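REQUEST ID: PR-0412
SUBMITTED BY: lab tech R.K.
PRIORITY: routine
TASK: structure prediction, single protein chain
INPUT:
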Amino acid sequence: MVDVSGKDETSRWARARAVVRMSPDTAARVQAGDAPKGDVLAVARLAAIQAAKRTDELIPLAHSLPLSSVGTDITVDVEAGTVTLVCEARVDARTGVEMEAMVACSIGALAIYDMVKGIEHGVVVERVELLDKTGGKKDYHR
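STATUS: complete
OUTPUT:
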């Protein structure tokens, strides 16, 4: 792990995005809440929040952080056949929360895959990317 003991504690925020591609028919079922396993969006939202809280258990060199908030916004574009997750995390700490936001998106996207694999096996998690981070030495905005 990187030694952050000499850094000042600051308010830090990060936002990431994941895109899950599927057929328009599957996306319509996701939006309607009509999947065999239940409400895809609710499960993905909870999976994302839970994952952010456990990032240090999943990423070997990540610091344990006392998250102050984790939020997940999910949009479905039926016509394009996409479900987009945007997850953000906040903390007052000596290190950033980029990994928490990205892990939240990753696990939320995988939860969507798991929830719809009975409908369609060709679902793809297209990308996971950091959109923004603030509060450290250098802010970043994609």
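NOTES: The first helix runs from residue 24 to 32.
REVIEWED BY: pending
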